[in-house]
Amino acid sequence: MDSSARCSGLLTDKYELTMLAAALRDGTAGRRTGFEMFTRRLPEVRRYGVVAGTDRFVQAVLDFSFDDAALSLLSEFLDPSTLQFLADFRFRGDIDGYPEGELHFAGSPVLTVQGSFAECVVLETLALSIFNHDTAIASAAARMVHAAAGRPLIEMGSRRTHEQAAVAAARAAYLAGFAGTSNLEAHRRFGLPVLGTSAHAFTLLHTGADGELEAFRSQVAVQGVGTTLLVDTYDVATGVANAVAAAGPDLGAVRIDSGELAVLAHQVRDQLDRLGATATKIVVSGDLDEYAIAALRAAPVDSYGVGTALVTGSGVPTAGFVYKLVEVDGRPVGKLSAGKQSQGGCKHAMRLARNGTVVEEVVYPAGRPPATDAPARGVTVPLVRGGEPVAETGPAALAAARERVTSGLHSLPWEGRKLGRGEPAIPTRVVAGGF
């Protein structure tokens, strides 16, 4: 891979740079602007979203640059003065937004980027690609965590998506409450707990008359009796018997990856108990989504492995965010296009609660919160000032985000946490005043 393919500045669309070139030529590039990222509506099957990608975006902004190879590529359509601007580019503006793990709704000002038009416009695609992906995954993951009702979930979808998207998806799932991932790069890059034992191929490799038992004994010899043995390569009942024979009654867990999972889980639990493996846990996997997980609540399942549905957003692969210019030199601007209107002016948000339950999100002109008698909590926080990050990042921020998801979901009205279709969990009210 050549250096231009790795250059962070090229993670953008051509029209951002052609707009930049025109603005530099006509003198508008330096005008003070505010861009806002929001979604006009939640997807039909979502009653809330979970913000994810903030930490990754802030780091990407710090790294956003154009090396010599990238500038050579861009010289095909950009003039020398624009190329010089990009050669010296560094974002020096301010960014506010919702911290990771915060819930969002239609119209929530999830991200506000302020600076010159030139430095803000080139960040559009970067912001949208990170937040639309990570938030979609985190929103699906949060629904799965809720459906699991306290039972752990393992992210194992790397083979069902792009290799780099897999790493980001693992992080977003962990942020939303998953216990760990199978992805080693996510473990290296973000410190996520990494989990995994073996696949059906290892059992099939042992082709003798007692091949399954031999495979299990081999796995136990290397990983210990606390390992998880995959028991559905052939016959599940025989697989369970071989698993206990190989590891003894202290076997850590068995995994079922196919069939009628609820029925099989009951049968396997009964068989394990009869074999004396009363503490052996049952892990299930195989095309699970939040609805399948919810349907297994009454089954003796101890944890879930989730792949395809998770890394594709469980039917909602993008959060639907847009990135729009809302302010120029302190004056609100907005689109009037049918069905694509934008509300002018930079905005912040707060949540109002009653008896510990959130009842409303209030969006108001930045820096001018409205008076209220109800308990209120500000949602918008500073992320970057003068091009430098001011919010916590790294493992501590990820841990705080996990807690934020949990507390946010607990604060919603109970009907807002249901998996079925419906209105957003809480209404959003926009306070007029300078927009």
Q: Could you please describe the fold and organization of this structure?
A:
The protein is of the alpha/beta class. The strands form four sheets. Strands 13-12-1-5-3-17-18 form a seven-stranded antiparallel beta sheet. The model is unreliable at 1-6 (pLDDT under 50). α3 (54-63) packs antiparallel against α7 (124-148), α7 packs across α8 (163-175) and α12 runs parallel beside α13. 38% of the residues lie in helices and 19% in strands. The longest helix has 25 residues, at 124-148. Residues 154-346 form the Nicotinate/nicotinamide phosphoribosyltransferase domain. This is Nicotinate phosphoribosyltransferase.
Using brief descriptors, characterize the structure shown.
single chain, nicotinate phosphoribosyltransferase, TIM Barrel, 2 domains, six-stranded parallel β-sheet, 16 helices, disordered N terminus
The fraction of residues assigned to DSSP E strands is 15-25%
Largest beta-sheet details: 7 strands, antiparallel
The average pLDDT value, as a whole number, equals 94
User: End-to-end distance, in Å?
Assistant: 47 Å
Catalytic activity: 5-phospho-alpha-D-ribose 1-diphosphate + nicotinate + ATP + H2O = nicotinate beta-D-ribonucleotide + ADP + phosphate + diphosphate
Function: Catalyzes the first step in the biosynthesis of NAD from nicotinic acid, the ATP-dependent synthesis of beta-nicotinate D-ribonucleotide from nicotinate and 5-phospho-D-ribose 1-phosphate.
Pathway: Cofactor biosynthesis; NAD(+) biosynthesis; nicotinate D-ribonucleotide from nicotinate: step 1/1
Protein name: Nicotinate phosphoribosyltransferase
